[in-house]
Amino acid sequence: MIRVEGLTKDYGARRAVENLTFNAEKGEILGFLGPNGAGKTTTMRILSGYMPPTSGKVEIAGFDVVEQSLEVRRRVGYMPETVPLYPDMTVFDYLKFMADLRHLSDAEDRVDDVLEKVHMEDRADGYIGKLSKGMRQRVGLAQALLHEPEVLILDEPTIGLDPAQITDVRKLIQDIGRERTILLSTHILSEAQQVCNRVLIINKGKIVVEDTPEKLQARLSGAQRIVLKVGGDSDGLLNILKHVEGVNRVVPNLNGAVEFENIPGQDPRPAVARAVVEAGYDLLEIRPIGLSLEEIFLQLTRDEPEPPTTADYERLDDPIDSDESYADETNDNQAIDSEDR
Ligand SMILES: Nc1ncnc2c1ncn2[C@@H]1O[C@H](COP(=O)(O)OP(=O)(O)O)[C@@H](O)[C@H]1O
Ligand SMILES: [Mg+2]
Predict the structure, then answer these.
(1) Is the CB of residue 82 below 6 angstroms from any atom belonging to ligand 1?
(2) 152 exposed, middle or buried (CB, 10 Å; 0-12, 13-18, 19+)?
(3) Which ligand is nearest to the CA of 36?
(4) Ligand 1 atom, smallest distance to 14 CA
(5) 35 CA distance to ligand 2 centroid (A)?
(6) pLDDT tens, residue by residue, 267-306
(7) 205: exposed, middle or buried (C-beta count within 10 Å: 0-12, 13-18, 19+)?
């Protein structure tokens, strides 16, 4: 249903997407997982027929997105990252307006139908401006379904929603996905794992991993980062930790605590706790936290778990270097943490 071959997109001198190749079949929900700036939105806009690629070939239901973009748009429902909605319109009027733009002959029936699909029949006369963010996302989804497209392209459909709304929207997507092909982007690993049949991980414009959620989980299982906090001065901790079996990649974090990864399959926490206490520290906290997407890429793209190397230890003596390796642990990471725990 979706065929992408060698897709590349440059914005001026900047390459946003490089040589992507993937397919999606009918009934499949394909996840597009990657951090901000990975190239998800760019790819989705090209697949929807709204922007031409710089090079490469994309076919949707057998139609070329460049040569036959009208045919493509007829078959694709696109829900952009920010759905342009008109706050002063009612839900019904907005959807009717969108249906008319598409020259749908049975516009009103189609609107009723999509309202039912997104479970908003009772909101038809409500003003869009008064809707919660979750409800607006549903209107965005409804608008993408008006022309009964075979392919749905959803750009981060759960971004900015609260947990209950996220659950609702995910369920909705899974229901809708049964008869269609869905490409869904997200920067949340657990969302891709829950909703999708297959996941492509994209980073810096390239596909780095393609796998089923089950296999991804297996490849990631046991990989954790653990934060360790002690009372008072934590100066000597790094030295102690690096001699504990099962501990990998120790770095100081910004709050005076220390973080390390376990070697997959090993749980070094009891040994760490003992070593810390034996060395005379007061142990305040030892707690696993989610891996950032960057760390997940590292885990997934290295075949064998690497034992810690001398280079890892040498890094410990250079706090600036270590800080940098965790510098991008901001919003994305929080999203992952709150999702996964
Ligand atoms: N209209 C644009 N002009 C120039 N650069 C852009 C434009 N849109 C996106 N980019 C750049 O292309 C890269 C991919 O962006 P995007 O596709 O939006 O990624 P994502 O959706 O995964 O966050 C980023 O480096 C971004 O800064
Ligand atoms: Mg985006």
Answers:
(1) no
(2) buried
(3) 1
(4) 5
(5) 9
(6) 899 999 999 999 999 999 998 887 777 777 777 766 544 4
(7) buried
User: Ligand 1: does its nearest atom lie under 6 Å from the Cβ of 34?
Assistant: yes
Tell whether the model's pLDDT for residue 153 goes beyond 70: yes
Mean pLDDT, residues 74-80? 95
**Mean of per-residue pLDDT scores for the chain:** 85
The full set of domains in the chain, from first to last, is 2-216 (3.40.50.300), 221-340 (3.30.70.100)
CA 197/CA 209 separation, integer angstroms: 14
Q: Closest-lying ligand to the alpha carbon of 46?
A: 1
Task: Give the C-alpha separation, 170 to 38, whole Å.
Answer: 22
The encoded tokens of residue 74 equal 């007829």
Q: Which atom of ligand 1 is nearest to the CA of 202?
A: 22
C-alpha radius of gyration, the chain, whole number = 24
Check if 200 has its Cβ closer than 6 Å to any atom of ligand 1: no
Which residue, judged by its Cα, is nearest atom 16 of ligand 1?
Answer: 39
Nearest-atom number in ligand 1 for the CA of 42 is 17
Q: What is the pLDDT of residues 82-123, one digit of tens each?
A: 888 899 999 999 999 999 999 999 999 999 999 999 999 999
